[in-house]
Specification:
Blueprint lengths: L32 H25 L22 H54 L38 E6 L6 E3 L5 E7 L4 E8 L7 E8 L4 E4 L3 E5 L7 E9 L4 E9 L2 E5 L5 H20 L28 H11 L6 H15 L1 E3 H5 L5 H4 L9 H4 L1 E2 L1 H14 L4 E5 L4 E7 L4 E5 L7 E3 L8 E2 L19 E3 L3 H6 L8
Parallel strand pairs: 11-12, 11-16
Antiparallel strand pairs: 1-2, 1-3, 3-4, 4-7, 5-6, 5-8, 8-9, 9-10, 13-14, 13-18, 14-15, 16-17
Length: 499
């Protein structure tokens, strides 16, 4: 507001001019609060300067340092100081409000920015969690075995530690532990462990099993990518997804059990396909196991071996037995024994292991009859009345053991067949719990041996292999699978001795 008398600018609320003391009638509004502040500072500076000049040259000095001309009569405005103080307070309030508004805006922007950062960080953490859970390949410190890939890698040409190949188990692999064997890849779910099964190009299903009488349970199921990303779960059955999201590479699944044992299987992705593979330490046995599985499946497909035609419990008569010798069989004994040692509430996998354990505990391997170059004691003594059947002697060779194992499984409605070549016989059993054929070789795991004509004299066997498929050609040179008696085999068009 400008004084109409002296033309000086005063505060907007001033009634009297601070310079001449006259009543102010003319108003002019400052454009902004900031201008008010600047004008106030200018007024103060000018006032101080004029006060100093007035102190030296003017006869009158007002309280506050503002002088008036000598020829003018001083007309002191008693309300002036109050008005100045009011103006300064208002200015301070305006400055405070402006600062508060500015601070508020800054705080709002800060809060908004912080919120956005928090949301971004939360989203990032969620993404990171999802990536870890889905095994997305985000590079970090790796705990995976060092891997060197070769040109155009496949499951058979990938090189791992120690120049060992990575062998594909064809969608399913069993790993486990048991008495008398090292931990790792196994051909059958004997003791306890887990089965890894490829469901599609993105998922692996982990199913833990325990076929022992001990309370063994899984503590952790950990899936890890080659870059160290992990996803864990405390579940006996766990489907782990996310493999489809990373490029060709490796991962592995490890299950730790309550016994302190830890078992691992590898996962390999190539061209949008997933494979269950061995880990480096199991490469040697894995190679032969894979070849064995390939040959077995090929043989079964060629001869129409299926679960539904592998259930007969009728006596299996072989042409090598002279029909005029009054042949007898002990099938009924083993069928009754199967019912005795199993329970209807058990899973098929549990029943099979119960049968397996009974055979390995209660039958001794007959080394004596082999030393006599005989087929069996029945043939050695030329007695087919049943007096020298395994149900009486409790000794036998691989042919006896595999037949007993098959007939006992079938009694429990579990499909089973006998596999053989010129040197050995063993079993394939269809486990519905897993939806696949599983290899069992009870002969290898018989805990006792007989080296005497006296069948009651047993020696504890050493070097039990317990479910291992060794690097032995006899397992890949399959010559025969027995699925039932001769009439059953004719019915299904399966040669009795397929070549």
């Amino acid at each position: 507001m400008y004084c109409e008398h002296c033309g000086k600018e005063n505060s907007d609320n001033a009634k009297f001019c601070r310079y001449c003391g006259n009543e102010i009638g003319k108003k002019q509004t400052a454009s902004s609060t900031s201008r008010k502040v600047k004008l106030l500072l200018c007024v103060l500076v000018v006032g101080i300067g004029l006060g100093a000049i007035g102190y030296k040259f003017l006869p009158g000095v007002l309280s506050g340092g503002f002088g008036i001309a000598e020829h003018e009569t001083p007309q002191f405005n008693p309300n002036y100081l109050a008005e100045v103080e009011t103006y300064e307070e208002e200015t301070e309030e305006v400055e405070t409000e402006t600062a508060q508004e500015t601070t508020g805006e800054v705080e709002t922007e800060t809060v908004r920015a912080t919120t956005e950062e928090t949301e971004a960080e939360t989203a990032q953490n969620a993404n990171k969690k999802n990536e870890n859970a889905s095994l997305t390949a985000v590079k970090s410190v790796s705990t995976w075995h060092s891997v060197t890939e070769v040109y155009n890698p496949t499951v058979d040409t990938v090189i791992k530690d120690g120049k060992e190949g990575l062998y594909n188990f064809y969608t399913t692999a069993a790993v486990g532990t048991g008495t008398g064997k090292s931990d790792g890849v196994v051909t059958a779910e004997a003791g306890y462990g887990f089965v890894a099964k490829v469901l599609n190009n993105d998922e692996i299903k982990i199913t833990c099993y325990n076929n022992t009488i001990e309370a063994v349970s899984p503590k952790t199921v950990t899936a890890e990518s080659q870059y160290g990303d992990k996803a864990s779960a405390l579940q006996a059955t766990k489907s782990i997804s996310g493999y489809g999201k990373f490029a060709n590479g490796f991962g592995h699944v490890t299950v730790e059990f309550s016994t302190g044992k830890s078992l691992t299987v590898a996962v390999y992705k190539e061209n949008d396909k997933l494979y269950v593979c061995n880990v480096a330490k199991a490469a040697a046995s894995a190679e032969n196991f894979v070849r064995y599985r390939e040959n077995t499946q090929k043989f079964m497909d060629e001869h129409g071996i299926k679960p539904e035609n592998s259930l007969s419990t009728n006596p299996i008569y072989y042409p090598i037995v002279p029909q005029n010798k009054g042949e007898n069989v002990d099938v009924e004994y083993w069928l009754a024994k199967a019912d005795e040692i199993t329970d209807d509430s058990w899973t098929n996998a549990h029943k099979v292991i119960a049968i397996y354990d009974y055979i390995t505990d209660n039958i001794a391997y007959d080394n004596w009859v082999l030393g006599e170059d005989a087929h069996s004691r029945t043939f050695y003594y030329n007695d087919f009345t049943g007096a020298y059947f395994t149900s009486k002697t409790k000794v036998g060779v691989c042919e006896d053991v595999s037949q007993i194992f098959a007939i006992m499984c079938r009694e429990e409605e579990i499909p089973a067949v006998i596999m053989a070549n010129g040197e050995h016989a063993w079993n394939l059993v269809y486990i519905s719990d897993y939806g696949r054929w599983v290899t069992y070789d009870a002969t290898f795991d018989l805990k006792n041996a007989c080296y005497n004509e006296d069948c009651t004299k047993w020696t504890v066997k050493t070097g039990i292999k317990y479910q291992h498929i060794d690097k032995d050609a006899r397992f890949t040179e399959i010559e025969y699978i027995g699925v039932g008696n001769a009439e059953d085999m004719k019915k299904y068009g399966i040669p009795l001795y397929p070549k």
